[in-house]
């Protein structure tokens, strides 16, 4: 049986004991002994330290949350006590629960009569539809008696209007759709007590600032003590955000900064790699990178700059794993289906534009690939933060051309990271990764099926020997009948052809399967590979 792991937002943090002071134990260990087994983070984040009801604790445990993470610890009391808060913490550290848990506790404790048609007490604004859906789900997972609604574009107006008629306690949404309902006089925000801007740097930027100001104008009056509590959260808070936010915040607002002047702004659980590659070879190399760093079973997100590029790459034959694209031109229902499929492991590679970069909490993403250095450092931090979440480790690989070296160094300098420059995967790297996958595939073969192949296997072992017979079978399973080797300097292709298993012959000593070589990119390579 595997040792338990602590999780937040449903994701595991390896090698961290789950048990907290509030949990019971069937063993005979004393409370003092159990206390000594806890890490300092677990002791500080123990549920018993906070005003959290047993109902909410049970719901958190059902989500796999056994203690509060650092940002949740620092923000719980200020949020619960009604202070304005502006908080910054690295990606993947549990920011949504930082405001969701104390707000849910506060509203459930008030236990007001549920009047039909009541306007929302809490408004949460997010920059993307996908993030709005996720935040609403997080609220629902930790609440019992509250009505949580989610309004976003691309979905029908009628169910949302019906929700306002029934009554809402917590409303999560995107600015465009919230603004539409306000203009159509279908939504009343005059009774707001709490306002949350998630990914605040994007919410107050040029694209959303006007809409946000119009929405909040319904509830905010200049220098009024009756203004709603304002909560601003993000992984990136440039200095201008603090200046713009002043119009919504009380002078006594609480600043929580878990990054501060630390050099590294990106997640510390992510390894950052960079590969120099000409754009003409990029799609093929990305396929090799996914195979080597994530394998056939791992989850990968590939970020592209354009919708066209995302569509083309998701269909590219170089990516052997099943892949789907996600971007703004895809109908909302399909976007939701795609994200659900990726979360549930229906397919392994998500090729997306920036729509998937902010806030999305997708479990166990092993690899993030960025097709080119992003135009701004904040984008890199948020994209790379889709992996290495909740204590897990991850890898982010950024492709660049030689002319983009300065841009890459700029990201290093501003994000406080150092890219480890690596070459494109070699044929040997791909063979090793593919063989590991092939071995895992063998574990899934039922015994009843194996029995049908015993006679052929025994004959093959007699003819070739056990090692060569199994090596040839693994080569065929892994698809290693044709591999491309690329120059470590310029990614030019040199192809290695492995004879197909049905025509495999042995050398005179019966020990090696030879790799035939062909001429490619104007060069001849003489090589052989031992499987």
Automatic annotation (TrEMBL):
Q: Keywords of this protein's UniProt record, alphabetized?
A: ATP-binding, Cytoplasm, Helicase, Hydrolase, Mitochondrion, Nucleotide-binding, Nucleus, Repeat, RNA-binding, rRNA processing, Transcription
Q: What Enzyme Commission number(s) does the record list for this chain?
A: 3.6.4.13
Q: Which GO terms describe its cellular component?
A: cytosol; mitochondrion; nucleolus; nucleoplasm
Q: Please tell me where this protein is predominantly located.
A: cytoplasm
Q: Which residues form the Helicase ATP-binding domain?
A: 76-255
Q: What class of enzyme is it?
A: hydrolase
Q: Which CDD domains match?
A: SF2_C_DEAD
**InterPro entries, A to Z:** DD_DDX21-DDX50 (IPR059027), DEAD/DEAH_box_helicase_dom (IPR011545), DEAD_box_RNA_helicase (IPR050079), Helicase_ATP-bd (IPR014001), Helicase_C-like (IPR001650), P-loop_NTPase (IPR027417)
Q: What Gene Ontology terms describe what this protein does at the molecular function level?
A: ATP binding; hydrolase activity; RNA binding; RNA helicase activity
Gene3D superfamilies named in the record: P-loop containing nucleotide triphosphate hydrolases (3.40.50.300)
Reactions catalysed: ATP + H2O = ADP + phosphate + H(+)
Q: Which PANTHER family match?
A: ATP-DEPENDENT RNA HELICASE RHLE-RELATED, NUCLEOLAR RNA HELICASE 2-A
Q: What is this protein called?
A: RNA helicase
Q: Which organism is it from?
A: Nothobranchius furzeri (Turquoise killifish)
Q: Which gene encodes it?
A: DDX21
């Amino acid at each position: 049986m595997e040792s338990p792991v602590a999780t937040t937002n449903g994701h595991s943090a390896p090698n961290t004991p789950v048990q907290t002071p509030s949990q019971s134990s069937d063993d005979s260990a004393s409370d003092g002994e159990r206390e000594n087994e806890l890490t300092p983070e677990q002791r500080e984040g123990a549920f018993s330290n906070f005003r959290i009801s047993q109902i909410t604790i049970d719901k958190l445990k059902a989500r796999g949350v056994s203690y509060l993470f650092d940002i949740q610890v620092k923000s719980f009391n200020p949020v619960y006590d009604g202070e304005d808060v502006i908080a910054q913490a690295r990606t993947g550290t549990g920011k949504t629960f930082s405001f969701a848990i104390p707000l849910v506790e506060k509203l459930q404790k008030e236990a007001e009569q549920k009047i039909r048609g009541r306007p929302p007490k809490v408004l949460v604004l997010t920059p993307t539809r996908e993030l709005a859906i996720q935040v609403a789900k997080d609220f629902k997972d930790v609440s019992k008696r509250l009505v949580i609604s989610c309004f976003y574009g691309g979905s029908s107006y009628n169910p949302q209007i019906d929700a306002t008629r029934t009554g809402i306690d917590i409303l999560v949404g995107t600015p465009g759709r919230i603004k539409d309902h306000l203009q159509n006089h279908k939504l009343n925000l005059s009774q707001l007590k709490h306002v949350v801007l998630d990914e605040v740097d994007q919410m107050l930027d040029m694209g959303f600032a006007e809409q946000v100001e119009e929405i909040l104008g319904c509830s905010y009056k200049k220098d009024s003590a009756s203004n709603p509590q304002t909560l601003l959260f993000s992984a990136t808070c440039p200095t201008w955000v603090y200046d713009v936010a002043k119009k919504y915040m009380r002078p006594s607002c609480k600043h929580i900064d878990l990054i501060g002047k630390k050099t590294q702004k990106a997640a510390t659980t992510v390894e950052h790699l960079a590969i120099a590659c000409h754009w003409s070879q990029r799609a093929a190399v990305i396929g090799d990178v996914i195979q080597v760093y994530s394998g056939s079973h791992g989850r990968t997100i590939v970020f592209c700059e354009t919708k066209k590029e995302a569509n083309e790459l998701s269909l590219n034959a170089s990516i052997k794993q099943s892949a789907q694209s996600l971007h703004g031109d895809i109908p909302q229902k399909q976007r939701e289906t795609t994200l659900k499929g990726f979360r549930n492991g229906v397919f392994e590679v998500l090729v997306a534009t920036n729509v998937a970069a902010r806030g999305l909490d997708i479990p166990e993403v092993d690899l993030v690939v960025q097709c080119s250095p992003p135009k701004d450092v904040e984008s890199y931090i948020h994209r790379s933060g889709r992996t290495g979440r909740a204590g897990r480790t991850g890898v982010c690989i950024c492709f660049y051309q030689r002319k983009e070296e300065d841009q890459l160094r700029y990201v290093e300098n501003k994000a406080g990271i150092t890219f480890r420059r690596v070459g494109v995967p070699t044929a040997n790297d791909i063979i090793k990764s593919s063989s590991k996958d092939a071995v895992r595939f063998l574990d899934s073969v039922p015994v009843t099926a194996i029995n049908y192949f015993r006679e052929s296997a025994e004959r093959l072992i007699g003819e070739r020997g056990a090692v060569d017979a199994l090596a040839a079978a693994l080569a065929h399973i892994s698809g290693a009948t044709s591999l491309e080797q690329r120059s470590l300097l310029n990614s030019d292709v040199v192809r290695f052809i492995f004879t197909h298993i049905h025509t495999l012959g042995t050398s005179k000593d019966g020990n090696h399967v030879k790799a035939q070589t062909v001429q490619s990119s104007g060069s001849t390579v003489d090589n052989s590979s031992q499987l």
